[in-house]
Amino acid sequence: MNTTPNEHGITHLRHVDLAVPDFATQRTFYKDTWGLTEVGTDGELSYLAAEGSPEQYIVRLRRAAEKRLDLIAFGMDSTASVDAFAQTLAGRGVQLVGEPAALQTAGGGYGFRFFDIDGRTIEVSADVETRRHRPIEEREAIPVRLSHAVMNSTDIHRTRDFYAAVLGFRLTDTLYTPHMGQVMHFMRCNDWHHSLAIAHGPHPSVHHVSFEMRGIDEYLRGTGRVLQAGTKKIWGPGRHTAGDNTFTYFLDPSGNTMEYTTALETITTDEWHPTVYDVTQPGVQDQWGIADPFSEIVAKDSFNDPDRGVFVAPPV
Prior knowledge:
316 residues; alpha/beta; 2,3-Dihydroxybiphenyl 1,2-Dioxygenase, domain 1; 2 domains; 5 helices
Protein backbone atom coordinates (compact mmCIF):
# COMPACT_ATOMS: atom_id res chain seq x y z
CA MET A 1 0.00 0.00 0.00
CA ASN A 2 1.01 3.64 -0.18
CA THR A 3 3.94 4.10 2.19
CA THR A 4 3.89 7.89 2.35
CA PRO A 5 1.45 9.12 5.03
CA ASN A 6 0.05 12.62 5.07
CA GLU A 7 2.85 14.89 6.26
CA HIS A 8 0.69 16.50 8.96
CA GLY A 9 -0.88 13.28 10.23
CA ILE A 10 -4.27 13.63 8.54
CA THR A 11 -5.59 10.09 8.22
CA HIS A 12 -9.11 10.01 6.78
CA LEU A 13 -12.48 11.68 6.25
CA ARG A 14 -14.59 11.41 9.42
CA HIS A 15 -17.93 13.12 8.80
CA VAL A 16 -19.79 15.82 6.88
CA ASP A 17 -22.12 18.11 8.85
CA LEU A 18 -25.11 19.78 7.22
CA ALA A 19 -27.53 22.43 8.42
CA VAL A 20 -31.04 22.03 7.00
CA PRO A 21 -34.37 23.86 7.40
CA ASP A 22 -36.37 20.65 6.80
CA PHE A 23 -34.77 18.82 9.71
CA ALA A 24 -37.49 16.21 10.30
CA THR A 25 -37.72 15.34 6.60
CA GLN A 26 -33.95 14.98 6.33
CA ARG A 27 -33.74 12.75 9.41
CA THR A 28 -36.37 10.47 7.91
CA PHE A 29 -34.60 10.40 4.54
CA TYR A 30 -31.18 9.48 5.92
CA LYS A 31 -32.58 6.86 8.33
CA ASP A 32 -35.34 5.21 6.32
CA THR A 33 -34.27 5.74 2.70
CA TRP A 34 -30.49 6.20 2.69
CA GLY A 35 -29.76 3.50 5.27
CA LEU A 36 -27.91 5.30 8.06
CA THR A 37 -28.48 4.67 11.77
CA GLU A 38 -29.34 7.55 14.08
CA VAL A 39 -27.07 7.00 17.08
CA GLY A 40 -28.02 10.09 19.06
CA THR A 41 -29.69 13.45 19.18
CA ASP A 42 -28.69 16.57 21.08
CA GLY A 43 -31.25 19.33 20.97
CA GLU A 44 -31.62 20.11 17.29
CA LEU A 45 -28.77 17.86 16.18
CA SER A 46 -28.99 14.36 14.73
CA TYR A 47 -25.94 12.08 14.57
CA LEU A 48 -26.10 9.43 11.83
CA ALA A 49 -23.69 6.50 11.61
CA ALA A 50 -22.89 3.83 9.03
CA GLU A 51 -23.27 0.31 10.41
CA GLY A 52 -19.96 -0.78 8.87
CA SER A 53 -17.87 2.17 10.10
CA PRO A 54 -16.06 2.68 13.42
CA GLU A 55 -16.75 6.42 13.21
CA GLN A 56 -19.19 7.68 15.83
CA TYR A 57 -21.15 9.28 12.99
CA ILE A 58 -20.57 10.12 9.34
CA VAL A 59 -23.34 12.72 8.89
CA ARG A 60 -24.53 15.32 11.38
CA LEU A 61 -27.75 17.18 10.70
CA ARG A 62 -28.54 20.48 12.42
CA ARG A 63 -31.90 22.25 12.32
CA ALA A 64 -31.34 25.77 11.00
CA ALA A 65 -33.23 28.54 9.24
CA GLU A 66 -30.82 28.41 6.29
CA LYS A 67 -29.30 25.46 4.46
CA ARG A 68 -25.51 25.34 4.67
CA LEU A 69 -22.47 23.13 5.03
CA ASP A 70 -21.53 23.25 8.71
CA LEU A 71 -18.17 21.52 8.36
CA ILE A 72 -16.07 18.69 6.96
CA ALA A 73 -14.15 16.67 9.57
CA PHE A 74 -10.91 14.75 9.08
CA GLY A 75 -9.13 12.43 11.50
CA MET A 76 -5.52 12.89 12.64
CA ASP A 77 -3.11 10.33 14.02
CA SER A 78 -2.40 11.93 17.43
CA THR A 79 -3.13 14.88 19.67
CA ALA A 80 0.48 15.97 19.15
CA SER A 81 -0.21 16.17 15.40
CA VAL A 82 -3.32 18.25 16.11
CA ASP A 83 -1.29 20.76 18.14
CA ALA A 84 1.52 20.91 15.61
CA PHE A 85 -0.93 21.35 12.73
CA ALA A 86 -2.66 24.25 14.50
CA GLN A 87 0.70 25.97 14.85
CA THR A 88 1.52 25.30 11.20
CA LEU A 89 -1.79 26.77 10.00
CA ALA A 90 -1.49 29.84 12.21
CA GLY A 91 2.04 30.39 10.90
CA ARG A 92 0.70 30.31 7.34
CA GLY A 93 -2.00 32.86 8.09
CA VAL A 94 -4.91 30.41 8.02
CA GLN A 95 -7.83 31.65 10.12
CA LEU A 96 -8.49 29.33 13.05
CA VAL A 97 -12.03 29.14 14.43
CA GLY A 98 -10.62 28.06 17.79
CA GLU A 99 -7.53 26.66 19.46
CA PRO A 100 -7.10 22.89 19.95
CA ALA A 101 -9.28 21.64 22.78
CA ALA A 102 -11.52 18.79 23.89
CA LEU A 103 -14.39 18.41 21.42
CA GLN A 104 -17.93 18.69 22.75
CA THR A 105 -19.62 16.59 20.05
CA ALA A 106 -20.45 12.87 20.03
CA GLY A 107 -17.36 10.73 20.61
CA GLY A 108 -15.35 13.55 22.11
CA GLY A 109 -11.72 13.70 21.09
CA TYR A 110 -9.28 16.56 20.71
CA GLY A 111 -9.19 18.95 17.79
CA PHE A 112 -9.93 22.35 16.31
CA ARG A 113 -11.61 24.06 13.37
CA PHE A 114 -10.37 26.46 10.73
CA PHE A 115 -11.51 28.03 7.46
CA ASP A 116 -10.14 26.72 4.20
CA ILE A 117 -9.33 29.12 1.37
CA ASP A 118 -12.96 29.11 0.15
CA GLY A 119 -14.35 29.75 3.65
CA ARG A 120 -15.50 26.22 4.50
CA THR A 121 -15.18 25.18 8.11
CA ILE A 122 -12.80 22.22 8.43
CA GLU A 123 -12.37 20.24 11.63
CA VAL A 124 -9.43 17.98 12.45
CA SER A 125 -9.39 15.67 15.45
CA ALA A 126 -7.65 12.77 17.19
CA ASP A 127 -8.60 10.38 20.00
CA VAL A 128 -12.28 10.30 19.05
CA GLU A 129 -13.98 7.24 20.54
CA THR A 130 -14.75 4.54 18.01
CA ARG A 131 -18.16 2.99 17.66
CA ARG A 132 -19.06 -0.69 17.80
CA HIS A 133 -19.67 -1.63 14.19
CA ARG A 134 -20.16 -4.81 12.20
CA PRO A 135 -19.53 -6.34 8.80
CA ILE A 136 -22.26 -5.52 6.31
CA GLU A 137 -23.92 -8.72 5.17
CA GLU A 138 -24.30 -9.95 1.61
CA ARG A 139 -27.25 -8.18 -0.10
CA GLU A 140 -27.52 -5.69 2.78
CA ALA A 141 -27.87 -2.48 0.82
CA ILE A 142 -26.80 0.12 3.37
CA PRO A 143 -23.65 2.27 3.49
CA VAL A 144 -20.49 0.71 4.90
CA ARG A 145 -18.65 4.00 5.39
CA LEU A 146 -18.32 7.57 4.21
CA SER A 147 -16.29 7.46 1.00
CA HIS A 148 -15.51 11.03 -0.06
CA ALA A 149 -16.74 14.60 -0.25
CA VAL A 150 -16.66 16.85 -3.32
CA MET A 151 -16.90 20.62 -2.98
CA ASN A 152 -17.62 23.31 -5.56
CA SER A 153 -15.12 26.13 -5.93
CA THR A 154 -14.91 29.11 -8.25
CA ASP A 155 -11.13 28.58 -8.53
CA ILE A 156 -10.35 24.87 -8.36
CA HIS A 157 -6.62 25.38 -8.92
CA ARG A 158 -6.31 27.75 -5.95
CA THR A 159 -8.30 25.36 -3.76
CA ARG A 160 -6.24 22.37 -4.97
CA ASP A 161 -3.04 24.24 -4.17
CA PHE A 162 -4.30 25.13 -0.69
CA TYR A 163 -5.09 21.52 0.17
CA ALA A 164 -1.79 20.34 -1.29
CA ALA A 165 0.51 22.97 0.18
CA VAL A 166 -1.23 23.60 3.51
CA LEU A 167 -2.95 20.27 4.34
CA GLY A 168 -0.59 17.88 2.58
CA PHE A 169 -3.21 16.30 0.31
CA ARG A 170 -1.88 14.82 -2.93
CA LEU A 171 -3.37 15.22 -6.38
CA THR A 172 -4.50 11.88 -7.80
CA ASP A 173 -6.25 12.73 -11.10
CA THR A 174 -8.01 15.58 -12.90
CA LEU A 175 -11.05 15.85 -15.18
CA TYR A 176 -10.93 18.11 -18.23
CA THR A 177 -13.23 19.33 -20.98
CA PRO A 178 -11.97 20.96 -24.20
CA HIS A 179 -14.27 24.00 -23.82
CA MET A 180 -13.91 24.57 -20.04
CA GLY A 181 -10.44 23.26 -19.24
CA GLN A 182 -9.86 21.43 -15.97
CA VAL A 183 -13.10 20.97 -14.02
CA MET A 184 -12.33 18.61 -11.12
CA HIS A 185 -9.29 17.67 -9.04
CA PHE A 186 -9.26 14.42 -7.03
CA MET A 187 -7.15 14.60 -3.86
CA ARG A 188 -6.08 12.02 -1.30
CA CYS A 189 -4.83 11.93 2.27
CA ASN A 190 -4.48 8.13 2.46
CA ASP A 191 -4.54 5.13 0.10
CA TRP A 192 -8.02 5.81 -1.30
CA HIS A 193 -8.06 7.43 -4.75
CA HIS A 194 -9.73 10.47 -3.20
CA SER A 195 -11.22 11.51 0.10
CA LEU A 196 -11.81 15.02 -1.23
CA ALA A 197 -12.38 16.43 -4.70
CA ILE A 198 -12.71 20.01 -5.89
CA ALA A 199 -15.20 20.72 -8.68
CA HIS A 200 -15.62 23.85 -10.77
CA GLY A 201 -18.80 25.65 -9.81
CA PRO A 202 -20.39 29.11 -9.80
CA HIS A 203 -20.02 29.48 -6.01
CA PRO A 204 -18.63 27.58 -3.02
CA SER A 205 -21.05 24.80 -2.07
CA VAL A 206 -21.43 21.06 -1.58
CA HIS A 207 -21.11 19.26 -4.92
CA HIS A 208 -21.78 15.80 -3.50
CA VAL A 209 -21.08 13.48 -0.59
CA SER A 210 -20.42 9.80 -1.33
CA PHE A 211 -21.17 6.65 0.64
CA GLU A 212 -19.41 3.32 0.12
CA MET A 213 -21.54 0.19 -0.29
CA ARG A 214 -20.41 -3.39 0.35
CA GLY A 215 -20.15 -4.39 -3.31
CA ILE A 216 -21.73 -4.08 -6.75
CA ASP A 217 -24.87 -6.03 -5.81
CA GLU A 218 -25.47 -4.01 -2.64
CA TYR A 219 -24.78 -0.79 -4.54
CA LEU A 220 -27.40 -1.65 -7.16
CA ARG A 221 -29.94 -2.84 -4.58
CA GLY A 222 -29.48 0.39 -2.64
CA THR A 223 -29.85 2.41 -5.82
CA GLY A 224 -33.12 0.62 -6.51
CA ARG A 225 -34.44 1.22 -3.01
CA VAL A 226 -33.73 4.95 -3.15
CA LEU A 227 -35.33 5.17 -6.59
CA GLN A 228 -38.44 3.32 -5.42
CA ALA A 229 -38.76 5.77 -2.53
CA GLY A 230 -39.32 8.52 -5.10
CA THR A 231 -35.96 10.26 -4.63
CA LYS A 232 -34.79 12.27 -7.64
CA LYS A 233 -31.94 10.52 -9.45
CA ILE A 234 -29.45 12.88 -11.06
CA TRP A 235 -27.13 10.44 -12.81
CA GLY A 236 -26.23 6.75 -12.88
CA PRO A 237 -25.87 3.87 -12.39
CA GLY A 238 -22.45 3.85 -13.98
CA ARG A 239 -18.73 3.42 -13.34
CA HIS A 240 -16.19 6.22 -13.54
CA THR A 241 -12.70 5.82 -14.98
CA ALA A 242 -10.99 8.20 -12.52
CA GLY A 243 -11.22 6.25 -9.28
CA ASP A 244 -12.73 3.19 -11.02
CA ASN A 245 -15.76 3.50 -8.72
CA THR A 246 -19.44 3.04 -9.39
CA PHE A 247 -21.85 5.98 -9.11
CA THR A 248 -25.49 6.84 -8.68
CA TYR A 249 -26.26 10.41 -7.65
CA PHE A 250 -29.48 11.52 -5.94
CA LEU A 251 -30.84 14.78 -4.53
CA ASP A 252 -31.69 14.66 -0.84
CA PRO A 253 -34.79 16.59 0.34
CA SER A 254 -32.73 19.76 0.88
CA GLY A 255 -31.21 19.65 -2.60
CA ASN A 256 -27.78 18.30 -1.64
CA THR A 257 -26.39 15.68 -4.00
CA MET A 258 -25.63 12.32 -2.39
CA GLU A 259 -23.92 9.36 -4.05
CA TYR A 260 -23.88 5.61 -3.60
CA THR A 261 -20.57 4.12 -4.73
CA THR A 262 -18.37 1.07 -4.34
CA ALA A 263 -15.00 -0.29 -5.46
CA LEU A 264 -13.12 3.01 -5.19
CA GLU A 265 -9.54 2.50 -6.33
CA THR A 266 -6.67 2.44 -3.86
CA ILE A 267 -3.22 3.75 -4.69
CA THR A 268 -0.61 1.02 -4.36
CA THR A 269 2.55 2.93 -5.23
CA ASP A 270 4.22 6.18 -4.23
CA GLU A 271 5.16 6.66 -7.88
CA TRP A 272 1.61 7.62 -8.86
CA HIS A 273 1.41 9.98 -11.82
CA PRO A 274 -1.86 11.98 -12.02
CA THR A 275 -3.81 11.63 -15.25
CA VAL A 276 -5.87 14.37 -16.90
CA TYR A 277 -8.99 12.68 -18.29
CA ASP A 278 -11.01 14.26 -21.11
CA VAL A 279 -14.60 13.68 -19.99
CA THR A 280 -15.89 14.07 -23.56
CA GLN A 281 -14.15 10.82 -24.52
CA PRO A 282 -16.32 7.66 -24.42
CA GLY A 283 -15.93 5.62 -21.29
CA VAL A 284 -14.27 8.27 -19.15
CA GLN A 285 -17.35 9.32 -17.22
CA ASP A 286 -18.97 5.89 -17.42
CA GLN A 287 -16.94 2.81 -18.36
CA TRP A 288 -20.10 0.71 -18.62
CA GLY A 289 -21.85 3.10 -21.01
CA ILE A 290 -25.24 2.66 -19.35
CA ALA A 291 -25.65 6.02 -17.61
CA ASP A 292 -27.17 8.96 -19.45
CA PRO A 293 -24.47 11.09 -21.09
CA PHE A 294 -23.06 13.72 -18.75
CA SER A 295 -24.64 17.08 -19.56
CA GLU A 296 -24.98 20.65 -18.35
CA ILE A 297 -28.31 19.65 -16.82
CA VAL A 298 -26.59 16.96 -14.74
CA ALA A 299 -23.84 19.39 -13.77
CA LYS A 300 -26.30 22.10 -12.73
CA ASP A 301 -28.02 19.82 -10.22
CA SER A 302 -24.74 19.52 -8.32
CA PHE A 303 -23.95 23.25 -8.34
CA ASN A 304 -26.25 23.42 -5.31
CA ASP A 305 -27.31 26.67 -3.62
CA PRO A 306 -24.62 29.20 -2.65
CA ASP A 307 -23.29 28.12 0.74
CA ARG A 308 -24.47 30.44 3.53
CA GLY A 309 -21.69 29.18 5.79
CA VAL A 310 -18.71 30.69 3.97
CA PHE A 311 -16.34 32.17 6.59
CA VAL A 312 -19.09 31.76 9.21
CA ALA A 313 -18.37 29.01 11.74
CA PRO A 314 -21.35 26.85 12.76
CA PRO A 315 -22.71 27.47 16.26
CA VAL A 316 -21.93 23.88 17.33
